[in-house]
Amino acid sequence: MATVKPEILQKAKRWLTDAFDADTKKEVNRLIEEDPKELEESFYKNAEFGTGGMRGVMGVGTNRINKYTLGKNTQGLSDYLKKSFPGKDLKVAIAYDCRNNSQSLAKVVADVFSANGIKVFLFSELRPTPELSFAVRKLHCQCGIVLTASHNPPEYNGYKVYWEDGGQLVPPQDEELVETINNLEYEAINFNANSELIQKIDTEVDIAFAEASVKNGSFDTSAEARKNIKIVFTSLHGTSITMVPEVLEKAGFTNVNLVEEQKEPNGNFPTVKSPNPEEPAALKMALELAEKKKADIVIGTDPDCDRLGVAVRNNKGEMVLLNGNQTMLIMTWFLLEQWKKQGKIKGKEFMASTIVSTPMLQKLVEDYGVKYMEVLTGFKWIAKLIKDHPALDFIGGGEESFGYMVGDFVRDKDAVTSTLLACEIAASMKAEGNSLYNKLLELYTKYGLYKEELISLVKKGIEGEKEIKQMLIDLRENPWSEVDGEKVIRVEDYKSSKSKNLRDNSESDIDIPKSNVLIYYTEGGTKIAARPSGTEPKIKFYISVNTSLDSVENYDKKDQELAKKISRIRKELNLG
Ligand SMILES: O=P([O-])(O)O[C@H]1O[C@H](COP(=O)(O)O)[C@@H](O)[C@H](O)[C@H]1O
Ligand SMILES: [Mg+2]
Protein backbone atom coordinates (compact mmCIF):
# COMPACT_ATOMS: atom_id res chain seq x y z
CA MET A 1 0.00 0.00 0.00
CA ALA A 2 1.25 3.46 -0.86
CA THR A 3 2.16 5.55 2.17
CA VAL A 4 0.38 8.75 3.02
CA LYS A 5 2.47 11.91 2.86
CA PRO A 6 2.81 13.44 6.37
CA GLU A 7 1.47 16.85 5.33
CA ILE A 8 -1.61 15.22 3.77
CA LEU A 9 -2.19 13.07 6.85
CA GLN A 10 -1.93 16.14 9.03
CA LYS A 11 -4.55 17.98 6.97
CA ALA A 12 -6.81 14.91 6.94
CA LYS A 13 -6.55 14.43 10.69
CA ARG A 14 -7.89 17.93 11.12
CA TRP A 15 -11.13 16.45 9.70
CA LEU A 16 -11.28 13.91 12.51
CA THR A 17 -11.89 16.57 15.16
CA ASP A 18 -15.15 17.71 16.75
CA ALA A 19 -15.96 20.27 14.05
CA PHE A 20 -16.91 17.39 11.72
CA ASP A 21 -19.79 14.92 11.87
CA ALA A 22 -19.52 11.16 12.36
CA ASP A 23 -20.09 10.24 8.69
CA THR A 24 -17.37 12.62 7.56
CA LYS A 25 -14.90 11.25 10.10
CA LYS A 26 -15.75 7.70 9.10
CA GLU A 27 -15.06 8.43 5.43
CA VAL A 28 -11.81 10.29 6.21
CA ASN A 29 -10.67 7.30 8.28
CA ARG A 30 -11.57 4.95 5.45
CA LEU A 31 -9.47 6.99 3.02
CA ILE A 32 -6.54 7.06 5.46
CA GLU A 33 -6.67 3.31 5.84
CA GLU A 34 -7.71 2.14 2.38
CA ASP A 35 -7.21 4.78 -0.27
CA PRO A 36 -4.14 7.03 0.18
CA LYS A 37 -4.32 8.19 -3.44
CA GLU A 38 -7.89 9.46 -3.08
CA LEU A 39 -6.94 10.93 0.30
CA GLU A 40 -4.18 12.95 -1.33
CA GLU A 41 -6.47 14.13 -4.17
CA SER A 42 -9.07 15.16 -1.56
CA PHE A 43 -6.72 17.11 0.71
CA TYR A 44 -3.72 18.34 -1.31
CA LYS A 45 -5.21 21.82 -1.72
CA ASN A 46 -8.35 23.84 -1.09
CA ALA A 47 -10.97 23.77 -3.84
CA GLU A 48 -10.53 27.02 -5.76
CA PHE A 49 -12.75 29.61 -7.39
CA GLY A 50 -12.33 29.46 -11.19
CA THR A 51 -14.03 30.78 -14.32
CA GLY A 52 -17.54 30.09 -13.00
CA GLY A 53 -17.38 29.81 -9.21
CA MET A 54 -15.95 26.95 -7.16
CA ARG A 55 -16.30 23.52 -8.70
CA GLY A 56 -15.14 20.11 -7.58
CA VAL A 57 -15.91 16.47 -7.08
CA MET A 58 -18.30 15.78 -4.18
CA GLY A 59 -16.76 14.02 -1.19
CA VAL A 60 -14.85 14.67 2.03
CA GLY A 61 -11.76 16.89 2.06
CA THR A 62 -10.57 20.42 1.49
CA ASN A 63 -10.42 19.93 -2.28
CA ARG A 64 -13.93 18.50 -2.47
CA ILE A 65 -17.44 19.88 -2.45
CA ASN A 66 -19.17 19.09 0.85
CA LYS A 67 -21.06 20.84 3.64
CA TYR A 68 -17.81 21.92 5.30
CA THR A 69 -16.09 23.47 2.30
CA LEU A 70 -19.32 25.20 1.24
CA GLY A 71 -20.15 26.04 4.87
CA LYS A 72 -16.76 27.69 5.21
CA ASN A 73 -17.29 29.59 1.96
CA THR A 74 -20.62 30.82 3.26
CA GLN A 75 -19.26 31.79 6.67
CA GLY A 76 -16.47 33.71 4.92
CA LEU A 77 -18.97 35.28 2.56
CA SER A 78 -21.20 36.33 5.46
CA ASP A 79 -18.23 38.02 7.17
CA TYR A 80 -17.17 39.62 3.90
CA LEU A 81 -20.67 40.91 3.13
CA LYS A 82 -20.83 42.56 6.56
CA LYS A 83 -17.53 44.25 5.88
CA SER A 84 -18.48 45.29 2.35
CA PHE A 85 -21.92 46.69 3.20
CA PRO A 86 -21.57 48.06 6.73
CA GLY A 87 -24.85 48.91 8.42
CA LYS A 88 -27.01 47.44 5.62
CA ASP A 89 -29.76 44.86 6.11
CA LEU A 90 -28.15 42.07 4.15
CA LYS A 91 -30.11 39.87 1.76
CA VAL A 92 -29.01 36.91 -0.37
CA ALA A 93 -30.87 34.78 -2.91
CA ILE A 94 -30.08 31.07 -3.30
CA ALA A 95 -30.91 28.70 -6.16
CA TYR A 96 -29.86 25.14 -6.89
CA ASP A 97 -29.87 22.78 -9.83
CA CYS A 98 -30.80 19.12 -10.42
CA ARG A 99 -27.54 17.62 -9.17
CA ASN A 100 -27.29 15.05 -6.43
CA ASN A 101 -26.92 16.97 -3.15
CA SER A 102 -27.63 20.40 -4.69
CA GLN A 103 -30.82 20.78 -2.65
CA SER A 104 -29.26 19.70 0.65
CA LEU A 105 -26.18 21.86 0.05
CA ALA A 106 -28.49 24.81 -0.70
CA LYS A 107 -30.06 24.23 2.70
CA VAL A 108 -26.63 24.24 4.38
CA VAL A 109 -25.79 27.52 2.65
CA ALA A 110 -29.15 29.05 3.64
CA ASP A 111 -28.65 27.87 7.22
CA VAL A 112 -25.20 29.44 7.54
CA PHE A 113 -26.29 32.79 6.08
CA SER A 114 -29.32 32.92 8.36
CA ALA A 115 -27.21 31.90 11.36
CA ASN A 116 -25.17 35.01 10.61
CA GLY A 117 -28.29 37.19 10.69
CA ILE A 118 -28.56 37.50 6.89
CA LYS A 119 -31.98 37.38 5.23
CA VAL A 120 -32.21 34.49 2.76
CA PHE A 121 -34.50 34.09 -0.26
CA LEU A 122 -34.39 30.42 -1.17
CA PHE A 123 -36.07 28.97 -4.25
CA SER A 124 -38.34 26.17 -3.12
CA GLU A 125 -37.29 23.94 -6.02
CA LEU A 126 -34.58 23.77 -8.67
CA ARG A 127 -34.31 26.80 -10.94
CA PRO A 128 -32.13 28.02 -13.87
CA THR A 129 -28.97 29.96 -12.99
CA PRO A 130 -30.05 33.03 -15.04
CA GLU A 131 -33.20 33.27 -12.91
CA LEU A 132 -30.97 33.60 -9.85
CA SER A 133 -29.01 36.43 -11.47
CA PHE A 134 -32.35 38.10 -12.23
CA ALA A 135 -33.64 37.47 -8.67
CA VAL A 136 -30.58 39.12 -7.08
CA ARG A 137 -31.47 42.42 -8.72
CA LYS A 138 -35.23 42.09 -8.43
CA LEU A 139 -35.07 41.36 -4.69
CA HIS A 140 -32.31 43.96 -4.09
CA CYS A 141 -29.91 41.38 -2.69
CA GLN A 142 -26.23 42.09 -2.10
CA CYS A 143 -25.34 38.56 -3.10
CA GLY A 144 -26.62 35.37 -4.72
CA ILE A 145 -25.54 31.73 -4.77
CA VAL A 146 -26.26 28.85 -7.13
CA LEU A 147 -25.46 25.30 -6.12
CA THR A 148 -24.41 23.78 -9.43
CA ALA A 149 -21.44 22.45 -11.33
CA SER A 150 -23.00 23.53 -14.61
CA HIS A 151 -22.31 20.93 -17.35
CA ASN A 152 -19.54 19.04 -15.50
CA PRO A 153 -19.89 15.26 -15.00
CA PRO A 154 -22.33 13.92 -12.34
CA GLU A 155 -19.73 13.48 -9.60
CA TYR A 156 -19.17 17.26 -9.49
CA ASN A 157 -20.98 20.04 -7.70
CA GLY A 158 -20.20 23.67 -7.09
CA TYR A 159 -20.88 27.15 -5.81
CA LYS A 160 -21.43 30.14 -8.09
CA VAL A 161 -21.33 33.51 -6.32
CA TYR A 162 -23.18 36.59 -7.58
CA TRP A 163 -22.81 40.18 -6.41
CA GLU A 164 -25.40 42.93 -6.12
CA ASP A 165 -25.23 43.78 -9.85
CA GLY A 166 -26.34 40.22 -10.71
CA GLY A 167 -22.96 39.25 -12.18
CA GLN A 168 -20.57 36.62 -10.82
CA LEU A 169 -17.85 37.77 -8.48
CA VAL A 170 -14.84 39.48 -10.13
CA PRO A 171 -11.69 41.16 -8.81
CA PRO A 172 -11.04 42.63 -6.36
CA GLN A 173 -13.98 41.08 -4.45
CA ASP A 174 -13.12 37.48 -5.43
CA GLU A 175 -9.56 37.67 -4.06
CA GLU A 176 -10.72 39.42 -0.90
CA LEU A 177 -13.41 36.80 -0.35
CA VAL A 178 -10.96 33.92 -0.83
CA GLU A 179 -8.61 35.50 1.68
CA THR A 180 -11.43 35.81 4.20
CA ILE A 181 -12.43 32.17 3.67
CA ASN A 182 -8.86 30.87 3.90
CA ASN A 183 -8.34 32.66 7.21
CA LEU A 184 -11.28 30.83 8.81
CA GLU A 185 -11.15 27.69 10.90
CA TYR A 186 -13.87 25.07 10.42
CA GLU A 187 -14.99 25.66 14.01
CA ALA A 188 -15.95 29.20 13.02
CA ILE A 189 -18.75 28.04 10.70
CA ASN A 190 -22.09 28.85 12.27
CA PHE A 191 -24.53 26.15 11.14
CA ASN A 192 -27.30 27.13 13.60
CA ALA A 193 -30.02 28.24 11.21
CA ASN A 194 -32.42 31.02 12.07
CA SER A 195 -35.42 29.73 10.13
CA GLU A 196 -37.25 33.04 10.55
CA LEU A 197 -34.76 34.62 8.21
CA ILE A 198 -35.23 32.02 5.46
CA GLN A 199 -38.01 32.89 3.06
CA LYS A 200 -39.02 30.52 0.26
CA ILE A 201 -39.47 32.20 -3.11
CA ASP A 202 -40.93 30.92 -6.33
CA THR A 203 -44.04 32.16 -8.16
CA GLU A 204 -43.43 35.87 -7.80
CA VAL A 205 -39.90 35.68 -9.20
CA ASP A 206 -40.88 33.02 -11.76
CA ILE A 207 -43.59 35.20 -13.24
CA ALA A 208 -41.40 38.29 -13.40
CA PHE A 209 -38.49 36.33 -14.92
CA ALA A 210 -40.69 34.64 -17.52
CA GLU A 211 -42.17 38.00 -18.53
CA ALA A 212 -38.75 39.64 -18.75
CA SER A 213 -37.42 36.73 -20.81
CA VAL A 214 -40.28 36.99 -23.30
CA LYS A 215 -39.83 40.76 -23.51
CA ASN A 216 -36.08 40.55 -24.12
CA GLY A 217 -36.07 37.51 -26.41
CA SER A 218 -38.97 38.39 -28.73
CA PHE A 219 -38.94 40.85 -31.60
CA ASP A 220 -41.25 41.59 -34.51
CA THR A 221 -41.62 38.07 -35.89
CA SER A 222 -45.29 37.44 -36.67
CA ALA A 223 -47.46 35.11 -34.61
CA GLU A 224 -47.97 33.00 -37.70
CA ALA A 225 -44.23 32.65 -38.30
CA ARG A 226 -43.78 31.55 -34.70
CA LYS A 227 -46.44 28.88 -35.10
CA ASN A 228 -44.78 27.69 -38.29
CA ILE A 229 -41.51 26.69 -36.74
CA LYS A 230 -41.11 23.15 -35.43
CA ILE A 231 -38.97 23.00 -32.32
CA VAL A 232 -37.44 20.08 -30.43
CA PHE A 233 -36.25 20.97 -26.95
CA THR A 234 -34.41 18.95 -24.32
CA SER A 235 -33.60 19.96 -20.75
CA LEU A 236 -31.05 17.09 -20.45
CA HIS A 237 -32.45 16.31 -16.96
CA GLY A 238 -31.67 19.86 -15.83
CA THR A 239 -33.37 23.00 -14.56
CA SER A 240 -34.58 24.47 -17.85
CA ILE A 241 -37.71 22.30 -17.68
CA THR A 242 -39.02 24.66 -14.99
CA MET A 243 -38.94 27.66 -17.32
CA VAL A 244 -38.14 27.17 -21.03
CA PRO A 245 -41.30 25.33 -22.21
CA GLU A 246 -43.45 27.91 -20.45
CA VAL A 247 -41.55 30.84 -21.90
CA LEU A 248 -41.71 29.42 -25.43
CA GLU A 249 -45.46 29.00 -25.05
CA LYS A 250 -45.91 32.51 -23.69
CA ALA A 251 -43.99 33.87 -26.66
CA GLY A 252 -46.33 32.10 -29.08
CA PHE A 253 -44.28 29.09 -30.17
CA THR A 254 -46.94 26.39 -30.30
CA ASN A 255 -45.03 23.61 -32.04
CA VAL A 256 -42.63 22.58 -29.28
CA ASN A 257 -41.69 18.91 -28.86
CA LEU A 258 -39.97 17.97 -25.62
CA VAL A 259 -37.69 14.96 -25.29
CA GLU A 260 -39.83 13.14 -22.73
CA GLU A 261 -37.10 10.76 -21.54
CA GLN A 262 -34.91 13.70 -20.54
CA LYS A 263 -37.57 15.90 -18.90
CA GLU A 264 -37.18 14.43 -15.42
CA PRO A 265 -34.55 16.30 -13.38
CA ASN A 266 -31.88 13.78 -12.41
CA GLY A 267 -28.38 14.37 -11.09
CA ASN A 268 -27.14 11.10 -12.59
CA PHE A 269 -28.04 12.30 -16.10
CA PRO A 270 -29.02 8.70 -16.98
CA THR A 271 -29.60 9.17 -20.72
CA VAL A 272 -26.39 11.04 -21.57
CA LYS A 273 -22.70 10.45 -21.12
CA SER A 274 -22.17 14.10 -20.34
CA PRO A 275 -24.86 16.79 -19.87
CA ASN A 276 -22.86 19.26 -21.94
CA PRO A 277 -24.61 20.53 -25.08
CA GLU A 278 -21.15 21.34 -26.45
CA GLU A 279 -20.70 17.61 -27.01
CA PRO A 280 -22.78 16.47 -29.99
CA ALA A 281 -23.66 13.18 -28.25
CA ALA A 282 -25.67 15.10 -25.64
CA LEU A 283 -28.24 16.05 -28.28
CA LYS A 284 -28.58 12.55 -29.76
CA MET A 285 -32.09 11.85 -28.47
CA ALA A 286 -33.24 15.33 -29.40
CA LEU A 287 -31.90 14.90 -32.93
CA GLU A 288 -33.67 11.56 -33.27
CA LEU A 289 -36.93 13.17 -32.23
CA ALA A 290 -36.27 15.99 -34.70
CA GLU A 291 -36.09 13.47 -37.54
CA LYS A 292 -39.40 11.89 -36.47
CA LYS A 293 -41.09 15.26 -36.17
CA LYS A 294 -39.33 16.84 -39.15
CA ALA A 295 -38.33 19.70 -36.88
CA ASP A 296 -36.58 22.88 -38.03
CA ILE A 297 -34.53 23.47 -34.91
CA VAL A 298 -33.21 21.48 -31.95
CA ILE A 299 -32.16 23.09 -28.68
CA GLY A 300 -30.69 21.53 -25.56
CA THR A 301 -29.59 23.26 -22.36
CA ASP A 302 -27.06 22.29 -19.70
CA PRO A 303 -28.09 21.36 -16.13
CA ASP A 304 -28.16 24.92 -14.78
CA CYS A 305 -29.62 26.33 -17.99
CA ASP A 306 -27.07 28.96 -18.84
CA ARG A 307 -25.54 27.33 -21.92
CA LEU A 308 -27.41 26.00 -24.92
CA GLY A 309 -26.67 23.87 -27.96
CA VAL A 310 -28.50 24.71 -31.17
CA ALA A 311 -28.87 22.42 -34.18
CA VAL A 312 -30.54 23.52 -37.41
CA ARG A 313 -31.02 22.08 -40.90
CA ASN A 314 -28.27 22.85 -43.41
CA ASN A 315 -28.97 23.55 -47.06
CA LYS A 316 -29.17 19.80 -47.73
CA GLY A 317 -31.81 19.36 -45.04
CA GLU A 318 -29.46 17.64 -42.56
CA MET A 319 -29.42 18.67 -38.91
CA VAL A 320 -26.10 20.20 -37.89
CA LEU A 321 -24.99 21.34 -34.46
CA LEU A 322 -23.77 24.93 -34.51
CA ASN A 323 -20.74 25.70 -32.42
CA GLY A 324 -20.72 28.47 -29.83
CA ASN A 325 -19.11 30.95 -32.19
CA GLN A 326 -21.74 30.31 -34.86
CA THR A 327 -24.64 30.66 -32.42
CA MET A 328 -23.07 33.86 -31.13
CA LEU A 329 -22.65 35.25 -34.66
CA ILE A 330 -26.21 34.63 -35.75
CA MET A 331 -27.67 35.97 -32.50
CA THR A 332 -25.46 39.04 -32.62
CA TRP A 333 -26.42 39.71 -36.24
CA PHE A 334 -30.12 39.37 -35.44
CA LEU A 335 -29.95 41.69 -32.44
CA LEU A 336 -28.01 44.27 -34.42
CA GLU A 337 -30.61 44.14 -37.21
CA GLN A 338 -33.43 44.62 -34.70
CA TRP A 339 -31.73 47.54 -32.95
CA LYS A 340 -31.02 49.11 -36.33
CA LYS A 341 -34.62 48.67 -37.48
CA GLN A 342 -35.87 50.28 -34.29
CA GLY A 343 -33.51 53.25 -34.79
CA LYS A 344 -31.79 52.47 -31.51
CA ILE A 345 -28.17 52.54 -32.72
CA LYS A 346 -26.98 55.98 -31.68
CA GLY A 347 -23.29 55.55 -30.99
CA LYS A 348 -23.42 54.55 -27.34
CA GLU A 349 -24.16 50.84 -27.69
CA PHE A 350 -21.76 47.98 -27.19
CA MET A 351 -21.48 44.24 -27.58
CA ALA A 352 -18.91 41.95 -26.04
CA SER A 353 -17.08 38.67 -26.36
CA THR A 354 -14.00 36.93 -25.01
CA ILE A 355 -10.38 36.70 -26.22
CA VAL A 356 -10.73 33.04 -27.22
CA SER A 357 -13.82 33.60 -29.38
CA THR A 358 -14.02 34.15 -33.14
CA PRO A 359 -12.40 37.34 -34.47
CA MET A 360 -15.26 37.55 -36.98
CA LEU A 361 -17.57 38.97 -34.34
CA GLN A 362 -15.71 42.25 -34.11
CA LYS A 363 -16.10 42.84 -37.86
CA LEU A 364 -19.83 42.18 -37.68
CA VAL A 365 -20.45 44.39 -34.66
CA GLU A 366 -18.36 47.31 -35.89
CA ASP A 367 -20.03 47.15 -39.29
CA TYR A 368 -23.24 48.27 -37.55
CA GLY A 369 -21.49 51.21 -35.88
CA VAL A 370 -21.57 49.50 -32.49
CA LYS A 371 -18.63 49.36 -30.10
CA TYR A 372 -17.02 45.94 -29.60
CA MET A 373 -15.28 44.99 -26.34
CA GLU A 374 -13.25 41.90 -25.50
CA VAL A 375 -12.60 40.35 -22.10
CA LEU A 376 -11.07 37.23 -20.52
CA THR A 377 -12.97 33.93 -20.70
CA GLY A 378 -16.10 33.92 -18.57
CA PHE A 379 -19.38 35.75 -18.64
CA LYS A 380 -18.51 37.36 -15.32
CA TRP A 381 -16.16 39.60 -17.30
CA ILE A 382 -18.92 40.56 -19.74
CA ALA A 383 -21.21 41.34 -16.79
CA LYS A 384 -18.42 43.50 -15.34
CA LEU A 385 -18.33 45.55 -18.55
CA ILE A 386 -22.01 46.40 -18.09
CA LYS A 387 -21.33 47.45 -14.50
CA ASP A 388 -18.27 49.49 -15.50
CA HIS A 389 -19.99 51.31 -18.39
CA PRO A 390 -23.31 52.57 -17.05
CA ALA A 391 -23.50 55.25 -19.74
CA LEU A 392 -23.42 52.67 -22.56
CA ASP A 393 -26.26 50.37 -23.70
CA PHE A 394 -25.44 46.68 -23.82
CA ILE A 395 -27.05 44.88 -26.75
CA GLY A 396 -25.77 41.35 -26.16
CA GLY A 397 -22.70 39.21 -25.84
CA GLY A 398 -21.42 35.71 -26.22
CA GLU A 399 -18.40 33.51 -26.45
CA GLU A 400 -16.92 30.45 -28.06
CA SER A 401 -18.20 28.32 -25.20
CA PHE A 402 -21.92 27.72 -25.85
CA GLY A 403 -23.97 30.50 -24.33
CA TYR A 404 -25.36 33.95 -24.96
CA MET A 405 -26.62 36.94 -23.03
CA VAL A 406 -29.41 39.09 -24.47
CA GLY A 407 -29.62 42.60 -23.03
CA ASP A 408 -28.70 43.34 -19.45
CA PHE A 409 -31.69 42.12 -17.42
CA VAL A 410 -29.71 38.95 -16.60
CA ARG A 411 -26.01 39.45 -15.90
CA ASP A 412 -24.77 36.03 -16.97
CA LYS A 413 -25.29 33.81 -19.95
CA ASP A 414 -28.92 32.87 -20.15
CA ALA A 415 -30.22 29.82 -21.98
CA VAL A 416 -33.86 30.75 -21.32
CA THR A 417 -33.85 33.98 -23.33
CA SER A 418 -31.29 32.57 -25.76
CA THR A 419 -33.53 29.59 -26.55
CA LEU A 420 -36.31 32.00 -27.30
CA LEU A 421 -34.04 34.15 -29.44
CA ALA A 422 -32.80 31.14 -31.44
CA CYS A 423 -36.40 30.12 -32.16
CA GLU A 424 -37.29 33.70 -33.04
CA ILE A 425 -34.44 33.86 -35.56
CA ALA A 426 -35.33 30.48 -37.08
CA ALA A 427 -39.00 31.51 -37.35
CA SER A 428 -38.21 34.89 -38.83
CA MET A 429 -35.80 33.43 -41.40
CA LYS A 430 -38.26 30.69 -42.39
CA ALA A 431 -41.00 33.28 -42.89
CA GLU A 432 -38.69 35.15 -45.27
CA GLY A 433 -38.05 31.98 -47.27
CA ASN A 434 -34.52 31.82 -45.90
CA SER A 435 -33.15 29.75 -43.00
CA LEU A 436 -31.05 30.39 -39.94
CA TYR A 437 -28.28 28.23 -41.41
CA ASN A 438 -28.28 29.96 -44.78
CA LYS A 439 -28.24 33.35 -43.08
CA LEU A 440 -25.05 32.31 -41.30
CA LEU A 441 -23.50 31.43 -44.67
CA GLU A 442 -24.56 34.83 -45.99
CA LEU A 443 -22.71 36.43 -43.09
CA TYR A 444 -19.62 34.43 -44.09
CA THR A 445 -19.80 35.83 -47.63
CA LYS A 446 -19.87 39.33 -46.19
CA TYR A 447 -17.34 39.16 -43.36
CA GLY A 448 -15.15 36.21 -44.38
CA LEU A 449 -15.49 32.52 -43.65
CA TYR A 450 -14.17 31.80 -40.16
CA LYS A 451 -13.87 28.28 -38.86
CA GLU A 452 -13.08 27.48 -35.27
CA GLU A 453 -12.29 24.34 -33.37
CA LEU A 454 -11.80 23.79 -29.67
CA ILE A 455 -9.45 21.03 -28.58
CA SER A 456 -9.77 20.05 -24.92
CA LEU A 457 -7.25 17.64 -23.45
CA VAL A 458 -8.49 16.13 -20.19
CA LYS A 459 -5.76 15.89 -17.49
CA LYS A 460 -7.16 14.92 -14.13
CA GLY A 461 -5.95 15.24 -10.55
CA ILE A 462 -2.64 16.34 -9.10
CA GLU A 463 -0.61 14.89 -11.96
CA GLY A 464 -2.90 16.40 -14.58
CA GLU A 465 -2.66 19.84 -13.00
CA LYS A 466 1.13 19.64 -13.06
CA GLU A 467 1.14 18.51 -16.66
CA ILE A 468 -1.10 21.39 -17.76
CA LYS A 469 1.12 23.92 -15.96
CA GLN A 470 4.18 22.41 -17.59
CA MET A 471 2.64 22.47 -21.07
CA LEU A 472 2.14 26.22 -20.78
CA ILE A 473 5.63 26.73 -19.37
CA ASP A 474 7.06 24.75 -22.31
CA LEU A 475 5.08 26.83 -24.73
CA ARG A 476 6.46 30.02 -23.21
CA GLU A 477 10.00 28.68 -23.40
CA ASN A 478 9.67 27.31 -26.93
CA PRO A 479 7.00 29.39 -28.62
CA TRP A 480 5.60 28.28 -31.98
CA SER A 481 7.30 30.30 -34.70
CA GLU A 482 5.51 28.86 -37.71
CA VAL A 483 2.14 27.16 -38.07
CA ASP A 484 1.01 25.40 -41.24
CA GLY A 485 3.71 27.18 -43.23
CA GLU A 486 2.63 30.61 -41.93
CA LYS A 487 4.98 32.72 -39.83
CA VAL A 488 3.77 33.65 -36.35
CA ILE A 489 3.73 37.44 -36.29
CA ARG A 490 2.33 38.21 -32.85
CA VAL A 491 2.25 36.47 -29.49
CA GLU A 492 0.08 37.72 -26.67
CA ASP A 493 0.89 36.52 -23.18
CA TYR A 494 -1.92 37.45 -20.81
CA LYS A 495 0.09 36.28 -17.83
CA SER A 496 2.75 38.93 -18.33
CA SER A 497 0.30 41.31 -20.08
CA LYS A 498 2.70 41.66 -23.01
CA SER A 499 1.94 41.53 -26.70
CA LYS A 500 5.01 40.90 -28.79
CA ASN A 501 5.20 41.86 -32.46
CA LEU A 502 7.65 39.36 -33.97
CA ARG A 503 8.13 41.38 -37.15
CA ASP A 504 9.95 44.22 -35.42
CA ASN A 505 10.35 42.69 -31.96
CA SER A 506 8.40 45.54 -30.40
CA GLU A 507 6.34 44.96 -27.28
CA SER A 508 3.17 46.55 -26.03
CA ASP A 509 1.02 46.17 -22.91
CA ILE A 510 -2.24 44.25 -22.83
CA ASP A 511 -4.83 46.21 -20.96
CA ILE A 512 -6.95 43.47 -19.38
CA PRO A 513 -6.46 41.55 -16.13
CA LYS A 514 -3.72 38.95 -15.99
CA SER A 515 -4.52 35.33 -16.80
CA ASN A 516 -2.62 32.22 -17.87
CA VAL A 517 -3.46 32.54 -21.59
CA LEU A 518 -1.24 32.55 -24.67
CA ILE A 519 -2.47 33.64 -28.09
CA TYR A 520 -0.57 33.26 -31.36
CA TYR A 521 -1.39 35.06 -34.60
CA THR A 522 0.09 34.09 -37.97
CA GLU A 523 0.65 36.11 -41.11
CA GLY A 524 -2.19 34.13 -42.75
CA GLY A 525 -4.78 35.21 -40.16
CA THR A 526 -4.72 32.02 -38.08
CA LYS A 527 -5.25 32.51 -34.36
CA ILE A 528 -4.40 29.87 -31.76
CA ALA A 529 -5.07 30.33 -28.06
CA ALA A 530 -4.03 28.07 -25.20
CA ARG A 531 -5.22 28.16 -21.59
CA PRO A 532 -6.09 25.85 -18.72
CA SER A 533 -9.84 25.48 -18.17
CA GLY A 534 -11.03 27.23 -15.04
CA THR A 535 -13.90 24.83 -14.49
CA GLU A 536 -12.67 21.36 -15.44
CA PRO A 537 -9.36 19.46 -15.43
CA LYS A 538 -8.55 20.34 -19.03
CA ILE A 539 -6.13 22.33 -21.14
CA LYS A 540 -7.92 24.08 -23.98
CA PHE A 541 -6.58 25.03 -27.42
CA TYR A 542 -8.73 27.26 -29.59
CA ILE A 543 -7.91 27.27 -33.31
CA SER A 544 -9.39 29.88 -35.64
CA VAL A 545 -8.69 29.95 -39.38
CA ASN A 546 -10.35 31.92 -42.14
CA THR A 547 -10.60 32.50 -45.84
CA SER A 548 -12.85 34.47 -48.16
CA LEU A 549 -16.17 33.13 -49.43
CA ASP A 550 -17.62 34.53 -52.65
CA SER A 551 -20.95 32.72 -52.61
CA VAL A 552 -23.07 30.56 -50.36
CA GLU A 553 -22.86 27.75 -52.95
CA ASN A 554 -19.11 27.48 -52.42
CA TYR A 555 -19.42 27.12 -48.67
CA ASP A 556 -19.01 23.34 -48.40
CA LYS A 557 -15.86 23.32 -50.51
CA LYS A 558 -14.23 26.20 -48.63
CA ASP A 559 -15.33 24.84 -45.27
CA GLN A 560 -13.66 21.52 -46.06
CA GLU A 561 -10.44 23.31 -46.99
CA LEU A 562 -10.48 25.04 -43.62
CA ALA A 563 -11.26 21.77 -41.85
CA LYS A 564 -8.18 20.24 -43.49
CA LYS A 565 -6.11 23.21 -42.45
CA ILE A 566 -7.23 22.78 -38.85
CA SER A 567 -6.39 19.08 -38.85
CA ARG A 568 -2.92 19.85 -40.27
CA ILE A 569 -2.41 22.36 -37.45
CA ARG A 570 -3.57 19.84 -34.84
CA LYS A 571 -1.11 17.32 -36.13
CA GLU A 572 1.77 19.73 -36.48
CA LEU A 573 1.33 21.12 -32.96
CA ASN A 574 0.67 17.69 -31.47
CA LEU A 575 -2.71 18.64 -30.09
CA GLY A 576 -4.20 15.16 -29.96
O1 LIG B 1 -19.50 26.27 -16.97
P1 LIG B 1 -20.48 27.42 -17.03
O2 LIG B 1 -21.66 27.10 -17.89
O3 LIG B 1 -20.82 27.94 -15.70
O4 LIG B 1 -19.69 28.60 -17.74
C1 LIG B 1 -18.52 29.16 -17.21
O5 LIG B 1 -17.40 28.42 -17.65
C2 LIG B 1 -17.20 28.39 -19.05
C3 LIG B 1 -16.01 27.50 -19.32
O6 LIG B 1 -14.87 28.04 -18.69
P2 LIG B 1 -13.47 27.34 -18.78
O7 LIG B 1 -13.04 27.43 -20.22
O8 LIG B 1 -12.58 28.10 -17.87
O9 LIG B 1 -13.68 25.90 -18.38
C4 LIG B 1 -17.01 29.81 -19.56
O10 LIG B 1 -16.82 29.78 -20.93
C5 LIG B 1 -18.22 30.63 -19.17
O11 LIG B 1 -18.09 31.95 -19.58
C6 LIG B 1 -18.40 30.59 -17.68
O12 LIG B 1 -19.52 31.35 -17.35
MG1 LIG C 1 -23.95 26.03 -17.08
TrEMBL record:
Cofactor: Mg(2+)
InterPro entries linked: A-D-PHexomutase_a/b/a-I (IPR005844), A-D-PHexomutase_a/b/a-I/II/III (IPR016055), A-D-PHexomutase_a/b/a-II (IPR005845), A-D-PHexomutase_a/b/a-III (IPR005846), A-D-PHexomutase_C_sf (IPR036900), A-D-PHexomutase_CS (IPR016066), Alpha-D-phosphohexomutase_SF (IPR005841)
GO biological process, one term: carbohydrate metabolic process
GO molecular function: magnesium ion binding; phosphopentomutase activity
Magnesium in keyword set: yes
Keywords: Isomerase, Magnesium, Metal-binding, Phosphoprotein
Top-rank taxon, per record: Bacteria
Ranges for domain Alpha-D-phosphohexomutase alpha/beta/alpha: 48-185, 218-314, 323-443
Pfam families: PGM_PMM_I, PGM_PMM_II, PGM_PMM_III
Family: Belongs to the phosphohexose mutase family.
Protein name: Phosphoglucomutase
Organism, as annotated: Christiangramia fulva
